[in-house]
Design a protein that fits this description.
Elements lengths: L4 H6 L2 H13 L4 H21 L19 H5 L3 H13 L5 H22 L25 H9 L6 H14 L3 H5 L11 E5 L5 E5 L2 H13 L24 H14 L9 H14 L5 H8 L4 H4 L1 H15 L18
Helix pairs in contact: 2-3, 3-6, 5-6, 8-10, 8-12, 12-15
Length: 336
């Protein structure tokens, strides 16, 4: 789905043209374009506030950016960008990940103005560094917990919900990818076409559990009352439309709770992490193959799963019963 038309049309031309270029020419996902919109809207409001071009009594979110032009952006310096990131941290409470995203948005936007359009003589963001991000290991279910989750599925939509969770746990697909699956994406050679970030297609292959789950669901999938525009969707909601991301998130939460796994930070995205971790650790899948399965743009993103294994190796060594054994030594250093 493209960025909401109302938001796009309400943006000033200097922003609207960039958003349109990002989505239609660069093939950025709707989510990425939305993030560009919010990041740059915040930046424009900050600029106007700092340069006295807005009413001081006006709430920040009410500052209009309709009048932002290239002349305002020509005045921006690297120091202004640094100050904006400080503002995002101290005033808006943005964490390092959010500030890193904002820094990336600014670099992309000013490069667009400088290099692509040629309307800026200099790029103030060319030397803008990314705030350091504290990397945490991805949370995931154990094999036993994953099986417990699958065994918790019941109710009138059992075959559908079981199929959804099976695909997440076996294939590691994204939420948007699962909801976007069409009947015509399922092929006779057991392959499945997915449409990932930036509208990039990739092919994955279905194992026996996935094929069986899909076939069982197809026997129960509604056939009547589905609008023609939704007829090709694999997963159908109770309202006879393509299932929404919100619905999938809700059903996953329901079954996590039934399985006694709620309150532990698990989510739909953690099911993707679970699939990747199980394939790498217990399936022995090569990290480069895992990258293709997950649809990562670069290997560095996938390598976080090797860190999971490293942490488990460390934990295993620490659990050795001899880990805390120390030989008693005399004062002169000899063993007693």
């Amino acid at each position: 789905m493209q960025m909401q038309y109302e938001k796009l049309m309400s943006a000033p031309p200097i922003l609207r043209d960039f958003l349109t270029y990002s989505e239609t020419i660069k093939g950025k996902s709707s989510r990425s374009v939305e993030e560009y919109y919010f990041d740059l809207t915040t930046f424009f409001r900050y600029l106007k506030q700092q340069q006295g071009q807005s009413d001081p009594a006006l709430p920040f979110e009410d500052i209009s950016i309709d009048d932002v032009t290239i002349d305002l952006l020509k005045s921006v310096t690297l120091q202004d960008l640094h100050a904006f990131l400080v503002f995002c941290k101290s005033v808006r409470g943005n964490n390092s990940t959010t500030r890193a995203r904002k820094a990336s948005t600014l670099r992309i936007y000013f490069r667009y103005l400088n290099t692509h359009l040629g309307v800026l003589p200099n790029n103030p963001a060319s030397l803008l560094d990314t705030p350091s991000i504290r990397h945490t290991l991805p949370k995931h279910l154990t094999l036993e917990e994953a099986m417990k989750l699958l065994n918790s599925v019941d109710g009138p939509y059992q075959s559908r919900d079981y199929c959804i969770l099976t695909l997440f746990l076996n294939c590691g697909m994204r939420l948007s990818e699962l909801c976007g699956i069409n009947l015509t994406d399922i092929r006779s050679d057991r392959s499945l076409r997915l449409l990932g970030k930036g509208n990039k297609e990739r092919i994955i292959y279905l194992n026996d559990a996935c094929v069986d789950a899909i076939n069982r669901y197809l026997q129960d999938r509604p056939r009547d009352g589905i609008p023609p525009s939704q007829a090709n969707a694999l997963f159908i909601s109770r309202n006879k439309n393509r299932i929404s991301q919100k619905t999938v998130q809700h059903l996953a939460s329901v079954y996590l709770k039934k399985a006694g796994l709620d309150g532990q930070g698990f989510s739909v995205h953690k099911l993707r992490h679970t699939a990747a971790t199980l394939m790498y650790q217990q399936g022995g899948v090569d990290i480069r193959i895992l990258k293709e399965i997950l649809g990562h743009a670069n290997l560095g993103t996938t390598q976080i799963y090797t860190h999971v294994a490293d942490s488990q190796v460390e934990q295993a060594i620490q659990s050795n019963p001899l880990a805390k054994y120390h030989t008693k030594r005399n004062a002169d250093g000899s063993q007693s």
